């Protein structure tokens, strides 16, 4: 690409659909290469950072600081013997890794990584495509990606892989609902579902008057819509299937989950899908909540040209790598949660909170459109929300500390099977019923 000059312009929907075929192909190729290189760098950085956090060196042999280790691991994995177990559904078995990896790459096509520049004499936005409903594309691709995990588990004809596929489908669907709900508040404030226009909407904050004084809201939706941002962070971890939410591939109980029976290049495709998905989710978060490719406020305050030309690519990459470090940090610091805790968080916490937050944001937007004073209403709503949270916390603590049921108390000095939970007897001769009968039978067998 030969850039003749740069323009300090932001992209809109009208900026798309005018590129020649070679420029569209070049953008697609750049995105593909960028995602592959990002996977290699992320794998290396993850091993080095976690090694530093856990007081061990990490890869340090292949290349300076082990920087070529991820590349050599990928080559080695692709060249290993490809073992296909007997009895698998071969067509589905081969298609599943492709269905897992391809949708994550397609989702990156609607991510803007810069404004409008001139390449080869053509004014073009640094974005492959944009649509009036562009943000819905990653949600659709995530739904298609689930098929890769489910079909991988089903076609393997293995109980471990099947359970991993079922876990993955339940987890991704649950957190995809909460993720979609976290986007609604952004749509309400930006007034559009186009990613380029959402970034443009975060260029400047809005102003409103209260008691004759003018107040300016923050430009980034991560600050203005903080609950939506926090909910997205949780759903981002659930969608990526990484620690602490890596239940579909829990090694302790499922060996490796849905890809237990895979090897060689097909296994590497699942590995690639995980890291590409992590990069895509980070880029989507940057676009919707952190101003996209635009430089943060301290930089734009003293440098007016920070968002002109090719510089936005730098700010975009810095923001993505901040989230990548966040992913790595969580993996090094947090243990895996239980599966019931994972589903409870998604269905009983994130989705209800998202619905309540959407209702509140919708009411505030409607009142502001009618020129009403929304500050007292926001204060009342904040107090009500705080009371509800406090009441739910007290109720949870109270229900957790309830007395043991009567049938369980009866089992304390009676049948160890009482209450539905098999408890091995501590001193069998003193128990009546099951424990005593087993002890008597054991004693008679010994005398015989």
From TrEMBL:
InterPro entries assigned to the protein according to its UniProt record, in alphabetical order: NADH_UbQ_OxRdtase_su1/FPO, NADH_UbQ_OxRdtase_su1_CS
Disordered as annotated region, ranges: 405-448
Keywords associated with the record: Cell membrane, Membrane, NAD, Quinone, Translocase, Transmembrane, Transmembrane helix, Ubiquinone
Transmembrane region(s): 20-45, 91-111, 131-154, 175-199, 219-237, 275-293, 313-333, 345-368, 374-395
Location(s) in or outside the cell: Cell membrane; Membrane
Enzymatic reactions: a quinone + NADH + 5 H(+)(in) = a quinol + NAD(+) + 4 H(+)(out)
Predominant location category: membrane
Topology with respect to the bilayer: Multi-pass membrane protein
Bias type Polar residues, positions: 438-448
Keyword Membrane belongs to the record: yes
Entry EC no(s): 7.1.1.-
Domain of life: Bacteria
Family to which this protein belongs: Belongs to the complex I subunit 1 family.
NCBIfam families linked to this entry: PRK06076.1-4
Quaternary structure note: NDH-1 is composed of 14 different subunits. Subunits NuoA, H, J, K, L, M, N constitute the membrane sector of the complex.
Function text: NDH-1 shuttles electrons from NADH, via FMN and iron-sulfur (Fe-S) centers, to quinones in the respiratory chain. The immediate electron acceptor for the enzyme in this species is believed to be ubiquinone. Couples the redox reaction to proton translocation (for every two electrons transferred, four hydrogen ions are translocated across the cytoplasmic membrane), and thus conserves the redox energy in a proton gradient. This subunit may bind ubiquinone.
Designated name of the protein: NADH-quinone oxidoreductase subunit H
């Amino acid at each position: 690409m030969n850039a003749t000059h740069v323009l300090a312009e932001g992209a809109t929907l009208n900026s798309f659909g005018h590129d020649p075929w070679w420029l569209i192909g070049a953008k697609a190729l750049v995105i593909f290469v960028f995602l592959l290189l990002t996977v290699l760098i992320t794998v290396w950085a993850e091993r080095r950072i976690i090694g530093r956090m856990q007081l061990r060196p990490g890869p340090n042999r292949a290349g300076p600081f082990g920087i070529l280790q991820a590349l050599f691991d990928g080559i080695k994995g692709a060249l290993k013997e490809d073992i296909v177990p007997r009895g698998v559904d071969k067509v589905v078995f081969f298609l599943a890794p492709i269905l897992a990896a391809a949708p994550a790459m397609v989702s990156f096509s609607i991510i803007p990584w810069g404004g409008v520049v001139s390449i080869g004499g053509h004014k073009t936005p640094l974005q492959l495509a944009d649509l009036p409903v562009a943000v819905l594309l990653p949600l659709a691709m995530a739904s298609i990606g689930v098929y890769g995990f489910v079909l991988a588990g089903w076609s393997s004809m293995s109980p471990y892989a099947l359970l991993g596929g079922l876990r993955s489908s339940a987890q991704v669907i649950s957190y995809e609902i909460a993720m979609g709900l976290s986007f609604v508040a952004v749509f309400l404030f930006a007034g559009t579902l186009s990613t380029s226009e959402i970034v443009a909407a975060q260029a400047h904050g809005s102003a409103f008057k209260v008691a004759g004084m003018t107040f300016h809201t923050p430009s980034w939706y991560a600050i203005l819509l903080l609950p939506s941002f926090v909910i997205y962070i949780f759903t981002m971890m659930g969608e990526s299937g990484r620690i602490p939410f890596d239940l579909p591939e829990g090694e302790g109980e499922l060996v490796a989950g849905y890809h237990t029976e895979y090897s060689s290049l097909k296994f590497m495709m699942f590995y690639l899908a995980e890291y590409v998905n992590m990069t895509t989710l980070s880029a989507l978060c940057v676009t919707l909540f952190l101003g996209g490719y635009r430089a943060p406020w301290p930089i734009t305050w003293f440098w007016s040209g920070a968002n002109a030309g090719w510089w936005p690519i730098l700010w975009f990459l810095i923001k993505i790598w901040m989230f990548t470090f966040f992913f790595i940090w969580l993996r090094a610091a947090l243990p895996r949660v239980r599966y019931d805790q994972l589903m409870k968080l998604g269905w009983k916490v994130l989705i209800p909170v998202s619905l309540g937050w959407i209702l509140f944001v919708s009411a505030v937007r409607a009142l502001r459109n009618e020129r009403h004073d929304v500050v007292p209403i926001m204060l009342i709503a904040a107090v009500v929300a705080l009371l509800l949270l406090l009441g739910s916390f007290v109720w949870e603590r109270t229900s957790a500390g309830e007395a043991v049921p009567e049938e369980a108390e009866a089992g304390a000095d009676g049948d160890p099977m009482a209450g539905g939970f098999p408890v091995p007897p501590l001193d069998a001769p003193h128990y009546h019923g099951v424990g005593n009968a087993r002890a008597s039978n054991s004693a008679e067998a010994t005398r015989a």
